[in-house]
Amino acid sequence: MDSFLDSWVVHLFIMLLGYATVFIPGYLLIRYLKSIKYEENAGNSIISRLIISCVYGSDDWQLLDSNAGGTSPLKTTSSSSLRRALNLVFCVIGLQVSYLTWGILQEKIMTKEYIGLDLHETGSFKESQFLVFVNRILAFLLAGAYLLVSKQPRHTAPLYKYSYCSFSNIMSSWCQYEALKYVSFPTQVLAKASKIIPVMLMGKLVSGKSYEYYEYAVALLISTGMTLFLFGSTTDSGKTGTSTTLSGVIILVGYMAFDSFTSNWQGELFTTYKMSSVQMMCGVNLFSCLLTSVSLLQQGTFSVAFAFMVKFPVFLWDCIVLSVCSATGQLFIYYTIATFGPVVFIIIMTVRQLLAILLSCIIYSHPVSLLAGFGITFVFMAIFLRIYCSHRVKQLKKRRTAAQDAIRA
């Protein structure tokens, strides 16, 4: 009975009930405000404008960019090749340090025991949702501070629409932490590297996207590599305490589903409302902090976490570094994409995933069989093939368009 109460299914159910106490009243309130046409009868008070911003969007009280729709505040204006090269090195180092440190701490917190001040008491921390909250709170504060001191494009999106991708973002992060109780970190990283497949499926469902033939071929190659890795890693399950279990597989599938929805929904918001990346970061993390804090308060997890910090001070410092890495990592993501484009960013993060697996195997002594190693190589070769093919297809389309324009002229 105790093992069932401690299971991830029960924790997930309780967590979803907590989120429902925010979503259901919020949904009913939005429906009511729309039914009475609140926007038409609202006054000019700050509260009225805040409500309109949350429910309807198109607020005109936020600071406008004098060149709205023009150059993003994150883009570099320097044309110097040397400066651009140094900028790229800065982005690579920032992303690698932030997310490699974050990954190492993630595995440490969820799988290792902490030693108390008296060196006799030991304990392990298992509250995945608290770690999600820790990741989001500093990111929200940093994004909010940036918005206060910088000019941004006019914000037109209803704020409540951030709650959808915020929820899926929370759930994907929770799945990452929870999965480490059942699968090894290399397995989790490889599953994340293989999320191209669910992203394609979700793109079909959410946006009706179509894909090139090479993308389907790459998806098949990645699936083959993942299969080889999983078969190879099961041979070592007797040697390690973290074998791939059915629960781990289910949670990883949940992670990929939620994460693929997050990226597709954010893409829809960017396309529809043209907000800046920092506005997106602030909006998503705002709802993430709201949802997780309400759920944690209802469960009394804050008191449990703080008591654990008092007993094991090292855990407190791990949480602080984890939060800093998560927040700075998000800023580096937006800056890198704005400055160098998504292709360069994908290459950097793919290398990061390879390094994460290597570091985890070295630091935490994860054995990797020959078959599993071949599977890892197979997956990352397929990913780099996808990057190359995607770049080539875009170049060919540009040349074809330029040739057609020249003929018409």
Automatic annotation (TrEMBL):
Keyword match Transmembrane helix: yes
Bilayer-crossing regions: 12-30, 85-105, 130-149, 213-232, 244-262, 283-308, 371-389
Database matches in InterPro entries: SCL35B1-4/HUT1
GO molecular function, one term: 3'-phosphoadenosine 5'-phosphosulfate transmembrane transporter activity
Subcellular locations according to the entry: Membrane
GO cellular component: endoplasmic reticulum membrane; Golgi membrane
Membrane topology per record: Multi-pass membrane protein
Keywords of the record: Membrane, Transmembrane, Transmembrane helix, Transport
Family membership noted in the UniProt record: Belongs to the nucleotide-sugar transporter family. SLC35B subfamily.
Name the record gives this protein: Adenosine 3'-phospho 5'-phosphosulfate transporter 1
Origin species: Hyalella azteca
